[in-house]
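Researcher: Sequence of ATP synthase gamma chain follows. Predict its structure.
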Amino acid sequence: MANIRSIKRRIKSVQNISQITKAMEMVAASKMKKAQDIALMGKPYADRIYELTKEFAGKVDISLHPLLSSGNPEGKILLIVISSNKGLCGSLNTNLFRKIYNFIGTNRNFDCVSIGRKAASFLIKSKNNLIADFSDKQKFIDSVPAVTKIIVEGFINSKYKGVYIGYSNFINVLKQEPSIKMILPISSLGEEVHVSGSIAKKDIIIEPNFDEVLEFLLPHYLENQLRSAIHEGEASEHSARMIAMKNATDAALDFMESLTLIYNKARQEKITYEIADIVTARAAFE
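Model: Prediction complete. Tokens:
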């Protein structure tokens, strides 16, 4: 009897868990749709800005703007890591942190900025030099101006020789890739540039000229790359959480089905024993 009651309590607990994970799945799905639309709409623009900035930088005098310099060869590397504030999103953060760990290796010539509590926790535990944390911002996008200021001041003052962003690149609902993207120093793409998914030669005509266009483009370049990475990270987080909660719900339902089968067997066994006791008692009286 005690065993049957215990199984029944477990079934009830698993059922409650499945209801919670199902609700979290639905919440993540609703957030994912909005975040996915923002990430996918902004991605082509961010990619094109990235390509054009690097392309134009190879056609102008780098002394025109300090951000076009090659950086201080003796300086550090600045790494901005964008993660989630919360867990329950599968292996999303783990995959990103593994890639960052392999990227940094044993090199301690790094300064790190975290956007997301999981990133801050990882960087502290791995004993990296965390100089700023923007995890407490209600919206990560609000931290873009402050992070941009750290990047610009550090690079112009020759503190850094390169700046990288580590984030989860949103491919689709089922696939998110950990990525590390260099945003400074700005270098040329080489002999070819990608245009709208194809490859085109470098014969580009710009009016009025490359210098004026690049001077207008550079102030928006860094903020645009940060915003795009944050939007893709948020879309990846909600997608990964939706899939993780769906898997958790399915696992809970499967476990509940197994427990129900065990419960029915135990109950059937108990009924059989009770019938046997009744038949034995009646036979004894006769």
